[in-house]
Amino acid sequence: MTRTAGANLGRLLERCPTRSMQRRLVRCVPQLDFNKNDPPTFLYTAGRPNRCNPRGVSCLYFSETEATADLEYRQHWRGTLAEHQPKLTFFARVKLSRIIDLKDREVMRLLGISQDDFEANWRFALGPTILQRVGEAIDSQQEISALRFPSAAARQQHKAGWNVARGTTAAIVLPRRVLRTRN
User: Fold this and answer.
1) How far apart are the two ends of the chain, measured CA to CA in Å?
2) d(Cα 127, Cα 43) in Å, to the nearest integer?
C-alpha cells in the first residue's frame, strides 16, 4: 500500500469532488477476439488486473480520443505475436453524472496519488497499486460513475491523452444504436 495505507478509500471518495462527462469515448479491440465469440464480446472484461483495477474487478477502459485509444491498444500488444493483428475501433457516446477526474490536483491530494503513481509499473507490483485500489473502491459503490486518468501510452509518446475506466459491477448503459465501429 502507498500513502493512503489504512485510509478508507470509500470514505475518501465520498468527500472527493466529482464532475460530469458527456462525450464520445473510444475503445480498440482485437478483431480476432471479437469474431471468435457468438455473440461478439466487444465490451468483454475478464477481471484481470490493469492500471485501475486489481484482479477480480472487471473494468471497461475507454479513451477520450481515437489517437489515444490506438496508442493504448498498440502498447498493450507491442512485442507479442499479436502486435500486428487487425483491430476494431468502437465509439460509445456516454453520459456519466459523477466521475473522479485525476487531472484535478485536489482529488489527487485527497486520495494520496502522485504523478509517480501514474508511471508505476502495475504489472510487477507486489500488491494492488493505489490506482487499482481507487478503482476497486469506485466499483464497490453506486455514486461515482468512473475514473478519468492520464494515458501512460500517450505519455510514453510525449503526447497528452486521457482514459476513462468504468467498473462493470454497476450497470453501464451503452445502447446498440450509439455504438459504431471502424476497422
Assistant:
1) 41
2) 26
Give pLDDT tens digits along the chain (183 positions).
334 433 489 899 999 999 999 999 999 988 887 888 787 766 667 778 999 999 999 889 999 999 999 999 999 899 987 788 999 999 999 999 999 999 999 999 999 999 999 988 899 999 999 999 999 999 888 899 999 999 999 999 999 999 999 877 544 444 444 444 455
How far is it, in rounded angstroms, from Cα 40 to Cα 42?
A: 6
Distance CA 106, CA 173 (A): 29
102 Cβ contact list (under 8 Å, min separation 6): 108, 113, 118, 147, 148, 149, 150
Prediction pTM value: 0.86
